[in-house]
Amino acid sequence: QVSLTESGGGTAPAGGSLRLSCRASGSAFGAESMIWFRQSNDGGREGVAAIMRAGTTIYADSVKGRFTISKDYNKRILYLQMDRLKPEDTGTYLCAADHGARGPRLATIGPAEWGQGTQVTVSL
């Protein structure tokens, strides 16, 4: 069952902006933590931003001051506002709902649900 669906990816120039959305269904939006991951071509998944159910947020050092994670509780959508984009931000962005989190983390503890991802390409 697909309970998380990402959208909003595309191509942007360095210094530009994109806003990613993750539409949640079922219990995913009520998870202890929701996390945005970036999967690049040359490596594994890196957690870039997370938000706890109570609203606490955490960001990877590489995106602090540039990305903002937020929730629309009425629409049940998780957002990632990406500003001042850099080429190294390129990758597939996936959202995850972590039902086992006990604090802000940039990794899932589990059990977790995953979306299919949306592609972000930042050009020079």
Description:
With 124 residues, this protein is mainly β. Helices cover 0% and strands 50% of the residues. It has strands at residues 4-7, 10-13, 18-24, 33-39, 45-52, 57-59, 67-72, 77-82, 91-98, 112-114, 118-123. Strands 2, 4, 5, 6, 9, 10 and 11 form a 7-stranded mixed beta sheet that branches. A 4-stranded antiparallel beta sheet has the order 1-3-8-7, with no helix packed on it. The model has no long low-confidence stretch (mean pLDDT 93).
Tags for this model:
globular; 124 residues; 7-stranded mixed β-sheet
Element layout with pairings:
Layout: E1 4-7, E2 10-13, E3 18-24, E4 33-39, E5 45-52, E6 57-59, E7 67-72, E8 77-82, E9 91-98, E10 112-114, E11 118-123
In short:
The chain has strands spanning 4-7, 10-13, 18-24, 33-39, 45-52, 57-59, 67-72, 77-82, 91-98, 112-114, 118-123. The termini are far apart.
Helix proportion range: under 10%
Terminal-residue CA separation: 38 Å
Strand fraction equals over 45%
Shape: globular
Uncertain regions spanning at least 5 consecutive residues: none
Global structural class: mainly beta
